[in-house]
Amino acid sequence: MSDPGIVGKMASESAPGVHTSSTPATQRWAWAKVVSVRRWTGNLLSFSISRPPEFRFTPGHYARLGLGEDADAIEWRPFSIVSAPAEDVLEFFAVLVPAGAFSNRLARVRVGDAIRIEKAAYGFLTVNQLASGKHLWLLASGTGLGPFVSILRDKTSWRAFDRIVVVHSVRYPAELAYRDEIEQMDNAAGDANLRAKLHYLPVVTREPYSGALSARIPQLIEEGQLERALGMELTREHSRVMVCGNPEMVKALRALLSAKGFQVNRRGVPGQMAFEKYW
């Protein structure tokens, strides 16, 4: 998850490159090192950092990362975690915003560079917020796919649902990040306990692309195209829906699903839908 509207300041600290073990225990953040950078397009990238020993998260959570050399001018942003909970690194999926203060710094990040990470994970876009059901629908636009990759990399959902639907909406085919990995996930291990059947459907809105739908996700649902393409019904009784992406899509899908009787988690009562919006 990336949010260009969040900026923070931290007190002075040791110079970049210190080991996380030297960070004071009372400090809210720890140092990590960049261990990989992958560019999908000119403004779309994934990067991984070393994982502080104390950092724990549930798939769907996000972390807050800080960049900057001046301790009084650190730029902080939230990013959804792409990694599975058991991995030794923390992976993130980001879009570089033109003239963005954090994006300008992130664009220059290289393997071995130091980066700050708050020690706590945040968010409510987790499967345990949902009532039990048969079908899990993961609807994403752009880098909103990130938390869903984490959910897919974890085995919990594969045991809990009969079917998992992943719909990823982008503008151009090159932006279909993680497509190859997701397509190969369909119970590739052959584990009988992982009962879910995976349905992956790309949506490309600005140019024709074989095997992809072309309208935006709210329109696809409103007109019934998504259900027809998947051969599945989107129902309150059996479907559990998670949505992550741009605010317009989130707002539209919340209205559409609410009209179908879906509800979010309320006062400890699990719902049938959960949302996260970017920026």
Q: What's the SSE blueprint?
A:
Layout: E1 29-39, E2 44-50, E3 62-67, E4 75-80, E5 89-95, H1 101-106, E6 114-118, E7 135-141, H2 146-153, H3 156-160, E8 163-170, H4 179-183, E9 197-204, H5 217-222, H6 225-230, E10 239-245, H7 247-259, E11 273-277
Parallel strand pairs: 7-8, 7-10, 8-9, 10-11
Antiparallel strand pairs: 1-2, 1-6, 2-5, 3-4, 3-6
Features:
single chain, 279 residues, alpha/beta, Elongation Factor Tu (Ef-tu), domain 3, Rossmann fold, 2 domains, five-stranded parallel sheet, disordered N terminus
Number of domains: 2
Rg: 19 Å
What coarse outline follows from CA principal-axis ratios?
globular
Distance between the termini: 8 Å
Within CATH, the superfamily of the largest domain carries the name Nucleotide-binding domain of ferredoxin-NADP reductase (FNR) module
Looking at CATH, which topology of the largest domain would you report? Rossmann fold
Strand line-up in the sheet with most strands: 4-3-6-1-2-5
Could you characterize what this model shows?
- The chain is of the alpha/beta class and 279 residues long.
- The chain has two domains: 20-118, Beta Barrel (Elongation Factor Tu (Ef-tu), domain 3); 127-277, Nucleotide-binding domain of ferredoxin-NADP reductase (FNR) module (Rossmann fold).
- It is 18% helix and 28% strand.
- The chain contains seven helices and eleven strands.
- Strands 4-3-6-1-2-5 form a six-stranded antiparallel sheet.
- The termini are close together.
In short, what is this structure?
The protein has 279 residues and is an alpha/beta fold.
